[in-house]
Every structure is written in structure tokens, then in C-alpha cells.
Design a protein that fits this description.
With about 100 residues, this protein is mainly alpha-helical. It has a domain of about 60 residues. It has five helices and no strands. The longest helix has 20 residues. The protein is elongated and about 55 Å long.
């Protein structure tokens, strides 16, 4: 019982280092999902699929435990900056503007 408590405490200390990072893996996946197709409905189906099959959850967990920790301790992020979603470049949004 004492070993379990010690292990949980050590895990809590590693996770609780307050290393709030950029979450680049998760944001890259989310950004890709917004421009995966030209159809917002198909993008929503992809989004739901990525939540049902726990892809988003795994990316978030990887960011939280691995990449943000690396960024906190080294000052450098191992992943490249995600491309921002530009709503103005969406075909549907561009044709609706008058």
C-alpha cells in the first residue's frame, strides 16, 4: 500500500510541474481537421471519428506528458508550430461575403 501511495505521489509530482505548454500535437491535429476537406459536414464526421477512436485523447495525453514536459525542461518544443486555421480562406465563407 505504501509503494502504491509513493508511486502515485511521484506521478503526481511529475504531472503537476505546472508545465503549461503549447499543445502543438493536439493543435496540429485540430487544425488539420478543420481543413481536411472542403465540406464542413465531412470535417465534422472526421472530428467525431477522431473522438470516438481516441485519437484526440492520445494526442492530448502525449502533449501533456511528453512534449510539454520536454518543452518545459529544455525550452524547446520537439514539434513544429501548427498552421493556423484561416476562416477567410474557407470556400463557403468566401462565397457568402458580399
Amino acid at each position: 500500500m505504501k509503494k502504491l501511495a509513493l508511486a502515485l505521489t511521484l506521478c503526481g509530482l511529475l504531472i503537476g510541474t505546472s508545465c503549461v505548454g503549447s499543445y502543438r500535437a493536439f493543435n496540429s491535429l485540430a487544425s488539420w481537421n478543420t481543413r481536411a476537406t472542403d465540406s464542413k459536414w465531412l470535417n465534422e464526421l472526421i472530428n467525431l471519428g477522431l473522438y470516438i477512436v481516441p485519437v484526440y485523447e492520445l494526442f492530448f495525453l502525449g502533449d501533456m506528458l511528453i512534449f510539454n514536459s520536454i518543452e518545459f525542461w529544455t525550452g524547446k518544443n520537439a514539434l513544429s508550430e501548427p498552421k493556423p486555421y484561416n476562416e477567410g480562406s474557407d470556400k463557403a465563407a468566401a462565397t457568402d461575403k458580399k
